[in-house]
Specification:
InterPro entries: DUF5987. It comes from Streptomyces triculaminicus. This is Regulator. It is a single chain. The chain is mainly α and 178 residues long. It has 9 helices and no strands. Helix 1 (2-11) runs antiparallel to helix 4, helix 2 crosses helix 4 (54-71) and helix 2 (15-30) packs across helix 7.
Amino acid sequence: MHAVEAELSDRKIPDEQHTARTLEAYADTILDGAAAAGALELLRWDATGISQDLDELARLLDEHARSHADEHALPPDGTSPAFEALPPGHRAALVRRLTAPGHPEREFWVLLALFCNMAFDSAAHLHTAEAIAAGHPGLAVMGMRRPDPDGLWRYPDHSYGRPLARLHPDTTPSGSPA
């Protein structure tokens, strides 16, 4: 009965909203803050190669979540997509199962997880300076600072404690080789 009730509650949510809520819950299960960092925007970007499959991935994830909820006698909440409705510890357990070696769908779930990390770690779907100016949560956590007023990043301290090489004499003011 739980699976039927959950499936009916899932149908009350419009497809686009359902997909968004399910995938954002997955993103935040992978890395807290990944949804706020734009994981869904990145996943929807056609450069990922999976943007056309997001509805199906959300549907499949909710199917796994309903099975997980039934296995653990978790009642459906009746208002949320099945994966979103799982308590955080159960979401994490399901993700561990889906991404475990030997799971037949592992490559899909690992790929989805990698993109969620990318959204947080690098804001790959955004121009870096604009992401920093907008207060991108992942870049802020990593301590990325704003570029200089001319839009270039200059670092007075070198990561190895010394410059790796002297600037070539023909380098232009913008940093390009002549």
